[in-house]
Amino acid sequence: MSEQNTKTYLVTNRSASRVHYAVPEIGVKSRDFQPGESKKIKYEEILGLSYIPGGLELIRDYLKVEALEKQDEEIKSIVGQTEPEYNMDSKAVRDLILTGSMDEWLDALDFAPEGVIDLIKTLSVELPLIDTRKMQSFKEKKGVDLERMIRSKEEERAEEAAAKAAAEAQVQQRRVTEQPAVANVPQRRTSGSKYKVVSKDTTTE
How much of the chain exceeds pLDDT 70, in percent? Predict the structure, then answer.
């Protein structure tokens, strides 16, 4: 086996969606990545994924591939030329949303892979994004109304908070009341009706 087939890379699902693939030619029946999940994957598997329909798009747009030691030509030949946005993770996206400049924001919208765009959209709603200029530019470039999504999310959170508060304020009432316990008073075990009272004459002659 050649050297390149023994290399292992750190592969991360940089998107906000689940990524799934299979490479049956090399025995990989199912490979799942949850959002943000990283796995160590052999070069052979990455190469095999690049050959199946849609596999190369997954690698370039949704899965960030990093060399564990240093970047090398083998993986570059699969991923191709990348922009700086290719390496953005969730922390970088949060910083972009909260404190990034407008130029950085526009560069991300123009050059980031689809997985990063997906993460930008999801985190913009969750954080939320408050810059209306960024919202407008996202709508113009990606056709997604972040302002509407954020407003809908806030309304949903408000409804959940109101329902929780109402549930906590509701006083629970018992439907069956327990009879009060009787003090320690001796109780008869029989009615006593079978016993006769006999008087004894104590008069002496």
Answer: 80
